[in-house]
Amino acid sequence: MKTRKPIACALSIVAAGLVLAAFGGDGDSNSADAAPADKPRENGGLPQGSEPVRLDPADFTTNIDNPYWPMKPGSQWVYSETDTTGAHQDVVITVTNTTRMIANGIEARVIRDTVSEDGVPVEITDDWYAQDDDGNIWYLGEYVTNLENGQVIDHTGSFEAGVDGAQAGIAMPARPRPGLSYRQEYYKGVAEDESAVITVGEERVEVPFGYFTKDVLMTRDLVPTEPKVQELKFYAPGVGPLLSVHTDGTGGRAALVSYTPGA
pLDDT tens across 3-23, in order? Predict the structure, then answer.
């Protein structure tokens, strides 16, 4: 998911001092996992910035079972999103049975992300994900439909890995550990989100769906083109995204209200 994305939302921090801990982490540094631009995969490194990646479609599957974001067809996450101005949106993320062949040759799972205000959709996005043999979930682009009063306005924000210089990124690493950094997506001037792992197993998170104390993963998302933007995200094994917190602008919080695992 992106910044307003993989969760499209933002929540409250449960533990005191959590934001300070996030700001103090070293997650946005280029760690040893940053690979040379010409060999981002061969040495096990995750992609950084705008560096190109050479991906072999044979190494990928649409059966996504990374424990921090399992995407079985039929899985659904429902979030309630608010900000400090009182604005409210409902976000529903559904793993479809549909796959799509991406321009870079990889078959991806289609994940439908619907954002609504007062029951009326304002954005419907099809996100494309696939998992490699190591267990990393790759983000391969999105088709965004922006709406107003039920009518389509435009498709601003859409991009596809392999088209017009767009590159795939990492939605969830196979083995997250503090300090691990990676790009989530890259399409110059449109989608340049980066992320880093801050903590693993140190946070306790409560959302309407439940209280989570074991092996919670916390990440921090940054957008180089928007230096003030920062989003903290929390994931639970076996469930996926629990909450996301924007610490910039009007702030914002989004809570996981319900989760239905796929069959």
Answer: 444 444 333 333 333 333 333
- What is the amino acid identity at position 178? P
Q: How far is CA 87 from the centre of its chain?
A: 22
Helix (H, G, I), strand (E, B) or coil at 24: helix
Domains and CATH numbers, the chain: 18-260 (2.40.360)
CB 133, CB 64: distance < 8 Å: no
Name 69's Cβ contacts closer than 8 Å, sequence gap at least 6.
Answer: 6, 137, 171, 172, 235, 240, 241
Say how many CA atoms lie within 13 Å of 263 toward its Cβ: 3
Tokens linked to 88 = 């409210």
Separation of alpha carbons 75 and 262, rounded Å: 4
Q: Three-state DSSP class for 224?
A: coil
Tokens of 52: 């190109």
Look up residue 248 and give its two tokens.
């910039």
Residue range 76-111, pLDDT digits in tens:
999 999 988 888 999 999 999 999 999 999 999 999
Eight-class DSSP state of 34: B
CB 157 within 8 A of CB 191: yes
- Contact between residue 238 and residue 67 where contact means Cβ atoms under 8 Å apart: yes
Rounded to the nearest 5°, which phi and psi values hold at 30?
A: -80, 105
